[in-house]
Amino acid sequence: MYNFKFHKVDNIQDAVAILSTSEDPKILSGGHTLIPTLKQRLSQPTDVIDISNIDDLKSIKNNGNKITIDALCTHSQVAKSIDVTTEIVGLASMASQIGDPQVRHRGTIGGSIANADPAADYPAAVLALDAQINTSSNSYNSDDFFVDMFETAINSDEIITSIDFKIPKKSIYKKFRNPASGYAMAGVFVAIFDNGIRVAITGASIKAFRLHDLEKKLENNFSVDVLKEFNVDTTNYNSDIHASAKYRGNLVKVLLEEAVAELV
User: Fold this and answer.
1) pLDDT for the residue numbered 154
2) Segment 113-171, tens digit of pLDDT
3) Domain limits for position 35
4) What is the 3-state secondary structure (H, E, C) of 24-35?
5) What is the CATH number for 201?
6) How many structural domains comprise the chain?
């Protein structure tokens, strides 16, 4: 590791103050991305701000038409929450599939969303559940949040504090895991609301995205038959050592068929 100043704070105000005045700071919560990059000298921050002791960012609340999950809630906490398992089955199931037990008990939802890894699971849930991402000074709509690979719309002096997930009538998440890392080589999240259907994909491209054309088709006829005639456009899909764009496109279609069949 390179040398850096370490700050451990117990409130969001102190964290923002240090973030705003440091030359090149990094936020530490669960540490599953930051710690490995520090060890490999891929990151050279001047300051590391540990926010894991901020107890005000560790609760889950049912607000009637939405579930608010604070940024420091762990994946395990999300997976086991009565509010989440009762109201948003797809989100609870998704959280239970992240990594392994060690990762789920340490990694946080805020850290995962802020990192915007193109193969992470939460971005698909954020898009499909029309979530609102709340920060220390702003709020962002899900469709405007993920900008590029590892890049979001939040400013450098902001910290994610909570995420508001709208409660759907039904939801489901399906993914094909990379056997080594557990990350999604392809993952699909389908959510049915009274006013429409949202379908989000992760793991296939440089960022999570919605399938707007398929959403409209499913709104007219929610059945597996729709998918038989649906062609996945793999133009912007990733090709790497794990899978080709064509293979990922096939995974997406198969996962969508499974998801729709189960929801029906």
Assistant:
1) 97
2) 999 999 999 999 999 999 999 999 999 999 999 999 999 999 999 999 999 999 999 99
3) 1-51
4) CEEEECCCCCHH
5) 3.30.390.50
6) 2
